[in-house]
C-alpha cells in the first residue's frame, strides 16, 4: 500500500547520495578501462547507509528460514522476524495467502506481533488499533479525525514472492521484478527439485565475520583466486578442470560453473539443461553451479543439494558482515562426502582468512583502486559496476 509518492509509509524520506560524488565512484562498463570501487566504499559507514537505502531496500531478499519453518498455512498464522534491522512479520490472511507486513503500528510505532501464533485480527498492544489479516486498519477512535484513514494507516503489504521452499521479500519498491532477477537461475536448476530438498541445520548458520559485505560477494565472484587460495594438494582447484571454468554475467545474476576433475562426481548430464554438455564428451559432469544473485546472495548447487550464503551488512559496521550459511540436501550419501569431494568447510576457512587480510589492507592508507584482468575478472567487474550503477545511476 504505497502513498502517492511511491513510498510504503508516510513521511519517510529517502537518503540523497549522502554527499558522495558520482565521479569519485565511477566504474567503467568497459572492463579494460574500469577501476574498482574506491577503498572508501568498503570502509565508510555513510556509504553503507547509502547502500542500505538504495540497494538493499530495493532488492529481493530471502525471509529467514527459521521464520518460514514456523509459519503455518492457516488463516491468521503470524511469525515475527527482522531483516537488516527492520521488524517485519509473516501473516497468513483469511484466504491462506501469505503477506509480509512491517511489525510497526501505523499509529505510534509499537510492535504488532511479539511472538508466533494464530490470530483472528491483528491488534496493537499499545492503544488497541486493529488491522484485518489483509492489513486494513480499523480504529473507531479515529472516526472523526479529518484525515483518517490515510492509505498509509493500513499495513504496507510488502512485495513477496515464493520459489521452491523460499520466500523473498522487498522492503520497498524492487528495482527489478522477481522473475527478472531469479528466472535464469530457476530455469537452470528446474530438474533438481529444489523444493524437495531437506534443510539441514548447521552448527553456526549465522556468524559475524571480518570484512565488508561486498568483499564477501566479490570473493564469491572471483575465480582468479582459486588456484592460489584454494590450492593443491586437496584444494578446490583439484576438484575442477580449471580450464573449463566459465563466468556468465547477466543483468541481475552471475553463473560460474566448471566440469569436475573426477568423472564420477558432479551432476548427471541429464539433470542440467543441454547447454552444459560438453559436445566433445557428453558424459562429462559439471562439478557445481555457483549462482550469485545481486546484491548479496550466493546459491551454490551441488549434486548433494544446495548451499545458500547471504552476505548481510552489519548496520553501522562497514568492516563486518553477518554471514548466513544454510544447507538443503537432495542426496544424503553425497552430502556426507561434501568435505572430501567439494572441500566446503576448507574453502570457507580459506576465503574467510583471505577476506580478513584484505579488509586490513583496504583500511590502510595504501589501498588503491585496482584494475580488473579483462579475461579473468568478469564477475568482479560486473559486481563493482552494478553497485556503482545502483547507487548513482538508477532512480
Ligand atoms: S501504537 Fe498501535 S495503537 Fe497506538
Ligand atoms: Fe574462494
TrEMBL record:
Keywords: 2Fe-2S, Iron, Iron-sulfur, Metal-binding, Oxidoreductase. It holds the Pfam family Rieske. It comes from the Bacteria. PANTHER family: CHOLINE MONOOXYGENASE, CHLOROPLASTIC. Gene3D superfamilies: Naphthalene 1,2-dioxygenase Alpha Subunit, Chain A, domain 1, Rieske [2Fe-2S] iron-sulphur domain. One of its GO terms (molecular function) is 2 iron, 2 sulfur cluster binding. InterPro entries: Rieske_2Fe-2S, Rieske_2Fe-2S_sf, Ring_hydroxy_dOase_asu_C_dom, Rng_hydr_dOase-A. This is Rieske domain-containing protein.
Amino acid at each position: 500500500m504505497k502513498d502517492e509518492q511511491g513510498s510504503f509509509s508516510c513521511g519517510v524520506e529517502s537518503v540523497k547520495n549522502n554527499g558522495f560524488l558520482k565521479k569519485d565512484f565511477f566504474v567503467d562498463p568497459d572492463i579494460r578501462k574500469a577501476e574498482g570501487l574506491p577503498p572508501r566504499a568498503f570502509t565508510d559507514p555513510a556509504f553503507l547507509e547509502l547502500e542500505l537505502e538504495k540497494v538493499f531496500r530495493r532488492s529481493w531478499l530471502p525471509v529467514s528460514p527459521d521464520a518460514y519453518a514456523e509459519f503455518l498455512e492457516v488463516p491468521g498464522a503470524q511469525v515475527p522476524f527482522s531483516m537488516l534491522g527492520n521488524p517485519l512479520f509473516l501473516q497468513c490472511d483469511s484466504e491462506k495467502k501469505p503477506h509480509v507486513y512491517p511489525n510497526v503500528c501505523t499509529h505510534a510505532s509499537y510492535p504488532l506481533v511479539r511472538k508466533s501464533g494464530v490470530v483472528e485480527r491483528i491488534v496493537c498492544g499499545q492503544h488497541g488499533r486493529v488491522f484485518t489479516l489483509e492489513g486494513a486498519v480499523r480504529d473507531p477512535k479515529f472516526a472523526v479525525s479529518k484525515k483518517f484513514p490515510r492509505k498509509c494507516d493500513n499495513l504496507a503489504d510488502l512485495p513477496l514472492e515464493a520459489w521452491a521452499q523460499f520466500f523473498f521479500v522487498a522492503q520497498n519498491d524492487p528495482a527489478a521484478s522477481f522473475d527478472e532477477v531469479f528466472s535464469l537461475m530457476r530455469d537452470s536448476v528446474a530438474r533438481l527439485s529444489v523444493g524437495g530438498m531437506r534443510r539441514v541445520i548447521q552448527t553456526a548458520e549465522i556468524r559475524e565475520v571480518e570484512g565488508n559485505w561486498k568483499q564477501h560477494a566479490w570473493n564469491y565472484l572471483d575465480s582468479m583466486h582459486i588456484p592460489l587460495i584454494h590450492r593443491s594438494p586437496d584444494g578446490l582447484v583439484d576438484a575442477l578442470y580449471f580450464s573449463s571454468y566459465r563466468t556468465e554475467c547477466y543483468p541481475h545474476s552471475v553463473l560460474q560453473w566448471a566440469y569436475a576433475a573426477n568423472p564420477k562426481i558432479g551432476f548427471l548430464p541429464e539433470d542440467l539443461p543441454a547447454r552444459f554438455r560438453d559436445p566433445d564428451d557428453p558424459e562429462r559432469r559439471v562439478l557445481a553451479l555457483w549462482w550469485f544473485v545481486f546484491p548479496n546472495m550466493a546459491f551454490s548447487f551441488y549434486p548433494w543439494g544446495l548451499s545458500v550464503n547471504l552476505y548481510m551488512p552489519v548496520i553501522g559496521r562497514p568492516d563486518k558482515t553477518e554471514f548466513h550459511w544454510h544447507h538443503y540436501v537432495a542426496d544424503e550419501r553425497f552430502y556426507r562426502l561434501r568435505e572430501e569431494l567439494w572441500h566446503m568447510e576448507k574453502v570457507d576457512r580459506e576465503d574467510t582468512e583471505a577476506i580478513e587480510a584484505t579488509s586490513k589492507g583496504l583500511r590502510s592508507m595504501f589501498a588503491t583502486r585496482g584494475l580488473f584482468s579483462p579475461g579473468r575478472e568478469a564477475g568482479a567487474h560486473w559486481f563493482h559496476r552494478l553497485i556503482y550503477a545502483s547507487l548513482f545511476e538508477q532512480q
